[in-house]
Amino acid sequence: MPVSQLKVDVGELRNARGVLQICLTADPDNFPNCIDDARAVSRVVPAADHGAVFDGLPHGNYAIAVFHDENSNRKLDTFAGIPREGFGFSRNPRIGFGPPRFSAARFAFASDAGIQQVRLRYML
Questions:
Q1: Would you say 97 and 123 are in contact if contact means Cβ atoms under 8 Å apart?
Q2: 41-78 pLDDT, tens per residue?
Q3: Measured between alpha carbons, how far is 123 from 48 in angstroms, rounded to an integer?
Q4: What distance lies between CA 23 and its chain's CA centroid?
Q5: 11 touches 120 (CB < 8 A)
Q6: Domains plus CATH for the chain?
Q7: What is the C-alpha separation between 6 and 53, in angstroms, rounded?
Q8: Signed CA dihedral, 45, 48, 50, 56: sign only
Q9: 57 and 103 in contact (C-beta within 8 Å)?
Q10: Which residues contact 109 (CB under 8 A, 6 or more apart)?
Q11: Global pTM?
Q12: How many CA atoms lie within 13 A of 3 on its CB side?
């Protein structure tokens, strides 16, 4: 099975505090949280890095979820159900109530090197 490198660039951060929690999954049932997906790949990187690199990634269909954990408490903080920290997804789909479906964030990864650009959104 061919493998390649995928770079995830995260843009529009409101500051460089805390970390970025990045989750990459091929399983629609575990998007966007990647909790029960043994094959999901997660990275926690300093927010100042603006992204991460995934090496040796098998080709296939994936979706990425990112949130800006500004206070480094390992969760997306909310107020009355509204995220207080930044979040974003591959393909930058429209956001309504709740996260997008896997199909809206899914992208095909089948080249020697790929890049996904994720724009963060802040509601509060």
A1: no
A2: 999 999 999 999 999 999 999 999 999 999 999 999 99
A3: 21
A4: 5
A5: yes
A6: 3-119 (2.60.40)
A7: 6
A8: negative
A9: no
A10: 4, 6, 57, 59, 60, 61, 62
A11: 0.93
A12: 5
